[in-house]
Amino acid sequence: MVEKLRIKIEKILLIGLLIPIIGIALSYYSNFNWIYDDLSFLGNVNPLFNIGLMASGLILFFFTKTTLTRIYIGAVAHFLMVTASVSVILTGLIRNKANYPLHFACAACFFFALANAQLVLGKAIIKSKRSLGVFSIVVSIVNYIIWGIFFIAWIFDHSIGYAIPELLYMIITLVWIFVFIFIYNSEQKV
Fold first, then answer.
1. How many domains are contained in the chain?
2. Sign of the CA dihedral 18, 80, 68, 134?
3. pLDDT (tens digit, 9 = 90+) per residue, 85-139?
């Protein structure tokens, strides 16, 4: 009974992960510039994007509490995942236009906490779940490379926005969550 409920929750989580993508699609409009804007700019135009961010934070929190707590991920990885969840909720709650410094701090905390959580989590589980551990570490490194390339480009042109690295980070993280749930569930059935 508990196992069936867990599987239903994971299916809801997987479907719910599409919320930010739908929010981006519905918030998109012709004045948005992928080079010079941030994804948060879409939240200034359509509150659905901010609702999608908050929903994504709740989904990340439930992913942490359902899937990740079934394996020992360590207190640090758990803290970082919860921090990332709360940070993305606050990013959606605090609109970019209304309070940019606080909004930016919450968004930066989300990206930093999640990438670190993926790295710490990968190290914590690499002995017991090698494929998940290695994959988590690789995802963390790729996310850091994306932001590293962005900041090198930003040094040369301060007017560029965060939209592209934010979108890439989001896609990679969605893939990470899908793969994590799929591999974990397939290993449980063996």
1. 1
2. positive
3. 999 999 989 876 778 889 889 999 999 999 999 999 999 888 888 888 999 999 9
Dihedral in degrees, nearest 10, Cα atoms 134, 69, 88, 45: 100
Reference 88, options 123, 119, 117, 120; nearest CA is: 117
Look at residue 111 in the predicted model and tell me its pLDDT: 94
CB 78, CB 131: distance < 8 Å: no
pLDDT at position 180 is 80
> In which band, very low, low, confident or very high, does the pLDDT at 16 lie, cut at 50, 70 and 90?
low
Longest CA–CA span in the chain (Å) reads 57
Question: Which residues span the domain enclosing 7?
Answer: 2-189
Angle (nearest 5°) at CA 141 between 135 and 144: 140
* Mean pLDDT to the nearest integer, 69-93: 86
